[in-house]
Design a protein that fits this description.
Elements: E1 2-5, E2 11-12, H1 13-19, H2 29-35, E3 39-40, E4 43-44, E5 51-52, E6 57-60, E7 64-69
Parallel strand pairs: 1-7
Antiparallel strand pairs: 2-5, 3-4, 3-6, 6-7
Length: about 70
């Protein structure tokens, strides 16, 4: 599992997809989430605006598992 460090309170799922190189541009997030299951804390979520906060665990099949490390966890 890889840590994704953020300096803000949260990062959106769409932003995370871009940071992890699952997609090459933000405009692809909607399409990617329609075609692929992304798990947040063990549950499927397809909202590109979903706010991910410190401690959240995201599993993107074919890309990897990631944990958000935010200001509270630094």
């Amino acid at each position: 599992m890889k840590d994704i460090k953020i300096n803000e309170e949260f990062i959106t799922l769409g932003q995370l997809l871009k940071v992890t190189d699952a997609i090459s541009s933000g405009g692809m997030a909607k399409w990617f989430l329609q075609e692929n299951a992304v798990y947040i804390n063990g549950e499927v979520d397809d909202r590109r605006g979903r706010k991910l906060r410190d401690g959240d665990i995201i599993n993107i099949p074919g890309c990897g598992r990631f944990q958000i490390v935010g200001p509270a966890g630094q």
